[in-house]
Write a structure and sequence with these properties.
Layout (H helix, E strand, L loop, with lengths): L9 E7 L10 H17 L3 E7 L3 E7 L6 H17 L13 E5 L4 H9 L1 H4 L5 H11 L6
Antiparallel strand pairs: 1-3, 1-4, 2-3
Helix pairs in contact: 1-2
């Protein structure tokens, strides 16, 4: 890749716990997960604008690095964080297979950030399954 290559490709990632278990119930521990995701992202050369760990899923917005694919980023974030979580809890934890990744335009970035930061309030009224299905419909994802 040329040293003169510049990109800004915002990606909104969403991934859940295995079987959508609400296994991350401790709010303070979820804050530690969020902090860990941010630090690990930075260490991997991934700029993470924001993230939020819910009891059964995570939202994160990253600027896709020029030397990584969406799959590379998902594998790094999910794999390393799963290992870290398992080293810090007393039960077996797994993320679900797969993830969702949606492009975010610069003009909508602040709206997405606000949405992610309001997850606690948002999920008082809507389940992760309902939210996930809404994203799939909004982005016209077929066959799921």
């Amino acid at each position: 890749m040329s040293v003169r290559s510049f990109t800004k490709v915002w990606i909104h990632f969403i991934w859940g716990t295995k079987n959508r278990d609400k296994s991350l119930t401790n709010r303070e521990f979820r804050k530690r997960i969020s902090k860990h995701l941010s630090v690990n992202s930075e260490n991997q050369g991934i700029y993470m604008k924001v993230n939020y760990a819910n009891s059964d899923h995570v939202h994160a917005v990253i600027d896709l690095p020029t030397n990584m694919t969406i799959e590379d980023v998902a594998r790094l974030l999910k794999g390393e964080s799963s290992s870290w979580i398992n080293n810090n809890i007393d039960f077996k934890f797994n993320w679900a297979t797969g993830y969702a990744a949606f492009s975010v335009s610069e003009s909508k970035l602040n709206k997405v950030i606000k949405y992610i930061l309001s997850q606690e309030e948002h999920h008082k009224h809507k389940s992760f399954t309902e939210e996930h299905n809404e994203f799939l419909r909004a982005y016209n994802v077929k066959g799921v």
